[in-house]
Amino acid sequence: MPDPLPIAVLISGSGSNLQALIDAQARGAPSCTIEVVISDRPGVKGLERAEAAGIETRVVGWADHADRGSFTEAVCDTADEFGVEALVLAGFMRILSPAAVRRYPNAIINVHPALLPSFPGARPVPDALSHGVVLTGVTVHFVDEQMDHGPIIAQEAVPVLAGDDEASLHARIQAIEHRLLPEVVDAFCSGRVRVEGRHVTVASGTIGEDNEVGA
Ligand code: GRF
């Protein structure tokens, strides 16, 4: 079996997706090791979750940097100190500059709580509700130089139900995120994800409950 791929997980808040990754490892997903959790904010619950799991943590404060470029450089330098080969953005609410994509080409994965390209940006759940869609969902994708735009690795739909508010819809979306993100990270870290242009295939396996991706 190949060595596990060292990864960094980037967070900004509660870290429930980080927890899903930690739990997947605890259940014996051996394809990656989370070497460090990096937050752009101090004192968030996700940092506590990492510490409880014995994972190194670092804060790279957004407010401590003059601009997006120097923030991005600091994030990547911190990740590099741990020798990681991929970044997983799990509820990371900052946009990295294109320099990050050059340093980790096709090796930055983001989870977004909508079916991209619908509802990119910082408010996808309220945006879906106010737009009146009957289906939204979860997208796990590679990060490229544009926001919420890179090649899609996996998607799963979530219905919008009568009477949903932001909290109820987001909770249903997050339940899917917590399964889909670890599946994608495991597939990527075990070398089963191939990207050609915008098209992603996953070899010898499927991702998602309804959606078969690749062969
Ligand atoms: C997730 O729904 C993620 O998709 C979005 O922000 C939320 C973060 O949740 N970008 P958590 O910090 O993983 O609990």
Describe the structure.
This protein has two domains: 1-105, Rossmann fold, CATH 3.40.50; 111-215, Rossmann fold. The protein is built from six helices and nine strands. The protein has helices at 16-26, 45-52, 68-81, 98-103, 124-131, 166-189, and strands at 5-11, 32-39, 56-59, 86-89, 108-112, 135-142, 152-159, 193-196, 199-202. The strands form two sheets. A seven-stranded mixed sheet has the order 3-2-1-4-5-6-7, with helices on both faces. It has a two-stranded antiparallel ribbon with strand order 8-9. The longest helix is centred in the C-terminal third of the chain and has 24 residues, at 166-189. The model is unreliable at 210-215 (pLDDT under 50).
Named once each, the bound ligands are: 5-O-phosphono-beta-D-ribofuranosylamine
Overall mean pLDDT: 94
Number of strands: 9
CATH architecture of the largest domain: 3-Layer(aba) Sandwich
Q: What structural class results from the helix and strand content? A: alpha/beta
Specify the helix fraction band: 25-40%
Largest β-sheet summary: 7 strands, mixed
The fold-level CATH name of the largest domain is: Rossmann fold
Major sheet: arrangement of strands:
3-2-1-4-5-6-7
Number of distinct helices: 6
Parts with pLDDT < 50 across at least 5 consecutive residues: 210-215
CATH homologous superfamily of the largest domain - what is it?
Answer: Formyl transferase, N-terminal domain
Estimated radius of gyration: 16 Å
Blueprint (SSEs and pairs):
Blueprint: E1 5-11, H1 16-26, E2 32-39, H2 45-52, E3 56-59, H3 68-81, E4 86-89, H4 98-103, E5 108-112, H5 124-131, E6 135-142, E7 152-159, H6 166-189, E8 193-196, E9 199-202
Parallel strand pairs: 1-2, 1-4, 2-3, 4-5
Antiparallel strand pairs: 5-6, 6-7, 8-9
Helix pairs in contact: 1-6
